[in-house]
User: Which sequence fits this backbone?
């Protein structure tokens, strides 16, 4: 088991190196960093001096090693646009994105899994059919349209919920949270719904398909033939077997939710990493873009590792093969 | 105890209804094993499902009575029926690999079943579960009860399944092909266990199987089914010893006997259909083409020599830098197949039979050893080039006719592929003609060439697979369990076909099977493998008269036969 985790960690290191290399190439080859940083009035000598100071004349490999080394030490460099350290910029934005993504995920699981189970067990019922048609609409409308529709309905027409920003936030150390104030929570509802809706429909359809499949397997038929109570058959036998493949997809999707919260954040002016990324693109702030790339990749790798651990926890077959 | 009278089951379709079971009447007494035998589609499993109240949604009981003791099974509500399941009627499924929940310990599964039907403390249920496992023959049950299903072997798992069916003391157990997925040795143990339970606990069994050997071994009474109707019913000794109905007779005749070698199998036929032995014109054409191979005239297949072949499969690494665990699938196996003869290759699952076939066909690379085809060295997988002539000479027929044909290709393109691939026939019209002629030779009409594989039955597909192998003008044919997925009457037809073709064209054949009776019918020589090692190899008739090795004697003794005590 320890060996399994170690193996995954070693693989993760290689993935991160590859991503860091991509990010570095972006930084190095898209435009000239010196001309980005300096104005027209800077003399050529000054430019050359800056180039030397920044180590841009060193060999490519050396520069990459320096870049990767800095990243490992938590030194992410400075933004072209704001001249602030990128690490700090991301850190102030990170809580907003993580909270949004996590709440969206929780909403999608809390609604998607029960709805999936329900529609699997009563595939022909009127309620199931309505849910399925409803989610079909949910999947087909793009995220930003849903966001705008929600703003229009709950923000403008009904005036129930705020439509932009995080509302009141509370600071716990460096972590600025909107989960601890009523206004903050109210602000979170619409963006989290928008972001979670796609994940919700996906989870629901996945759980439904998988559960229907599992209900047809031999071991469920055998449990029925033994007269095991239906409740137990459904929730102790069928559900865990359903969740094994579902966990993988949900995990991968969560990475996607964080990475692609860009659209939702821009619709709701949510001050997260996605919005920062959009601003960076607008100002061709390449250092921020490349660090964003590395951070998102890190999230993906981390979530994947987490999914593997959850796997080990639910499937005894994996545990035993490792110890045998 | 159980009485079924006039049971008729219909399945609704979009276009109407089909009758799956018609007017079936049967009884099962306490402690009696009642065999239901028939070929696929005979309605055996549907009868079991109807008694359990577990017909699929499209199925309905159209007529008939079913009573268990005083209980009328047809008038039960859904909740009552569910409570009755497990409590009074239990079931054993075919495949022990899939009939247990992989995520739950066997102890939890046993305890939950007992608690579902009895109001006793959990500890008492656990104690009973342990006792039951011991009785069923699982050593050290107290510790093993905390294991998950995958930690048991196939035979042990089927014992756990039986324990689950048994743990609530039911009156009747329906066993649906309980030993079909097991090796003969394990099958014999499981059948003994069922016999013992019927005798000591007085449980009635309905034993559903396609294997007449199994019925002959343990059933007290037997019902022979065909197309949902009862063909013949009575004491096993009477029905199988002196069958009255022609279908029962034909079914019996199609079972390969273990004690003698037949020239041909009798094949059960639909009334009015005559068997023609005369070759049609296209079939003769295909035959001529095959005969006109390499040297011309009646050629003989090549000799195959296997010398000290060893195959190792490497497993997972132990830890990060630990060594890979390796598994020896074949250990120093030496044998030879004489030109133009059939070598039967037998052994239990995991004995390495299929691995050996794959080594010869260059699908697995051996760690050591040599192969020779007609004296010339035969390159192993990694050194056998795509263009190596042996690729044409060696052809295979696989076990599962459902997955061995590409479902997206028409039969014609499946059949002409070897002609194109090996450059045997370059003219397209000629390829087309030959493919159709070959279909005639294997007993299929020429027009089926334009259909897709899914439009055929298992037996027909296996004929197509044979035709495909023949169209590369092979010298050595490897048949890996070619009939084990087929019904006994279809098996008889395919074996007849293989026999005919083998004698006619002098094909050297490696015939792999777990069924000794089938091997006896087919082979001139026989090789027995166990755990990757060679047990013995030699002439077939001498082997069946008296095998030299103790393991072979066991294997022979455990094979069910249709003879009576």
Assistant:
């Amino acid at each position: 088991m320890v060996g399994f985790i170690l193996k995954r960690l070693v693989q993760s290191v290689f993935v991160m190196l590859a991503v860091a290399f991509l990010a570095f190439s972006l930084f190095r080859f898209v435009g000239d960093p010196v001309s980005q940083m300096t104005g027209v009035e800077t003399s050529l000598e000054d430019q050359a001096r800056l180039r030397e100071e920044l180590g841009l004349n060193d060999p490519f490999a050396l520069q990459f090693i320096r870049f990767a080394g800095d990243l490992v030490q938590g030194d992410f460099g400075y933004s072209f646009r704001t001249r602030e350290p990128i690490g700090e910029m991301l850190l102030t934005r990170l809580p907003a994105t993580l909270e949004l993504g996590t709440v969206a995920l929780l909403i999608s699981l809390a609604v998607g899994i029960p709805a999936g189970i329900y529609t699997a067990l009563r595939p022909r019922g009127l309620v199931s059919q309505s849910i399925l048609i409803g989610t079909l609409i949910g999947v087909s409308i793009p995220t930003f349209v849903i966001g705008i529709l929600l703003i229009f309905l709950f923000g403008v027409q009904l005036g129930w919920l705020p439509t932009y920003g995080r509302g009141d936030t509370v600071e716990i150390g460096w972590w600025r949270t909107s989960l601890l104030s009523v206004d903050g929570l109210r602000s979170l509802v619409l963006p989290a719904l928008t972001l979670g809706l796609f994940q919700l429909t996906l989870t629901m359809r996945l759980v439904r398909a998988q559960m229907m499949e599992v209900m047809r397997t031999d071991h469920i038929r055998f449990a029925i033939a033994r007269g095991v109570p239906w409740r137990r058959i459904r929730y102790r036998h069928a559900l865990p077997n359903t969740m094994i493949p579902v966990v993988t997809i949900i995990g991968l999707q969560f990475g996607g939710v964080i990475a692609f919260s860009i659209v939702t954040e821009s619709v709701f002016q949510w001050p997260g990493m996605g919005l920062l990324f959009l601003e960076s693109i607008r100002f061709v702030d390449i250092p921020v873009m490349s660090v964003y790339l590395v951070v998102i990749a890190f999230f993906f790798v981390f979530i994947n590792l987490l999914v593997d651990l959850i796997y080990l926890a639910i499937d005894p077959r994996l545990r035993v093969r490792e110890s045998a | 105890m159980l009485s079924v009278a006039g049971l008729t089951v219909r399945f609704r379709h979009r276009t109407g209804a089909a009758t799956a079971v018609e007017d079936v009447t049967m009884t099962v007494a306490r402690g009696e094993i009642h065999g239901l035998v028939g070929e696929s589609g005979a309605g055996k499993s549907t009868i079991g499902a109807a008694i359990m109240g577990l017909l699929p949604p499209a199925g309905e009981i159209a007529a008939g009575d079913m009573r268990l003791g005083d209980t009328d099974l047809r008038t039960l509500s859904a909740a009552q029926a569910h409570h009755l399941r497990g409590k009074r009627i239990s079931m054993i499924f075919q495949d022990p690999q899939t009939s247990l929940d992989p995520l739950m310990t066997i102890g939890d599964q046993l305890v939950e079943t007992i608690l579902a039907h009895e109001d006793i403390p959990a500890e008492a249920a656990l104690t009973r579960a342990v006792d039951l496992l011991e009785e069923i023959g699982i050593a050290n049950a107290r510790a093993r009860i905390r294991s998950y299903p995958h930690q048991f072997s196939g035979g042990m798992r089927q014992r756990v399944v039986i324990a689950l069916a048994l743990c609530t003391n039911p009156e009747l157990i329906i066993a649906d092909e309980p030993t079909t997925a097991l090796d003969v040795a394990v099958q014999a143990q499981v059948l003994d266990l069922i016999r013992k339970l019927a005798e000591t606990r007085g449980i009635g069994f309905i034993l559903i199987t396609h294997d007449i050997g199994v019925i002959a071994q343990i059933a007290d009474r037997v019902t022979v089914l065909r197309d949902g109707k009862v063909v013949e019913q009575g004491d096993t000794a009477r029905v199988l010893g002196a069958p009255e109905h022609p279908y029962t007779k034909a079914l019996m005749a199609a079972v390969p006997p273990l004690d003698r070698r037949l020239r041909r199998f009798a094949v059960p036929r639909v009334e009015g259909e005559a068997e023609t032995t005369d070759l049609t014109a296209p079939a003769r054409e295909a035959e001529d083409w095959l005969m006109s191979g390499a040297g011309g005239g009646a050629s003989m297949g090549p000799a195959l020599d296997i010398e000290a072949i060893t195959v190792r499969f490497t497993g997972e690494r132990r830890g990060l830098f630990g060594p890979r665990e390796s598994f020896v699938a074949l250990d120093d196996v030496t044998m030879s197949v004489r030109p133009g003869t059939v070598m039967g290759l037998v052994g239990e699952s995991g004995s390495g039979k299929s691995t050996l076939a794959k080594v010869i066909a260059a699908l697995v690379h051996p760690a050591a050893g040599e192969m020779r085809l007609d004296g010339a060295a035969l390159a192993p997988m990694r050194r056998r080039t795509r263009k190596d002539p042996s690729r044409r000479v060696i052809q295979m027929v696989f076990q599962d006719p459902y997955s061995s044909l590409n479902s997206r290709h028409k039969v014609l393109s499946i059949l002409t592929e070897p002609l194109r691939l090996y450059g045997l026939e370059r003219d397209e019209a000629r390829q087309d003609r030959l493919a159709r002629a070959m279909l005639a030779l294997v007993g299929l009409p020429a027009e089926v060439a334009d259909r897709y594989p899914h439009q055929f039955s298992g037996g027909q597909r296996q004929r197509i697979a044979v035709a495909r192998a023949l169209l590369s003008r092979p010298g050595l044919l490897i048949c890996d369990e070619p009939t084990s997925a087929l019904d006994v009457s279809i098996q008889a037809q395919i074996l007849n076909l293989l026999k005919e073709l083998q004698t006619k064209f002098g094909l050297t054949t490696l015939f792999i099977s777990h069924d000794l009776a089938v091997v006896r019918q087919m082979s001139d020589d026989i090789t027995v493998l166990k755990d990757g090692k060679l047990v013995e190899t030699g002439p077939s008739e001498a082997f069946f008269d008296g095998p030299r090795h103790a393991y072979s004697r066991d294997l022979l003794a455990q094979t069910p036969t249709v003879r009576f005590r």
Observations:
- The longest helix of chain B spans residues 184-201.
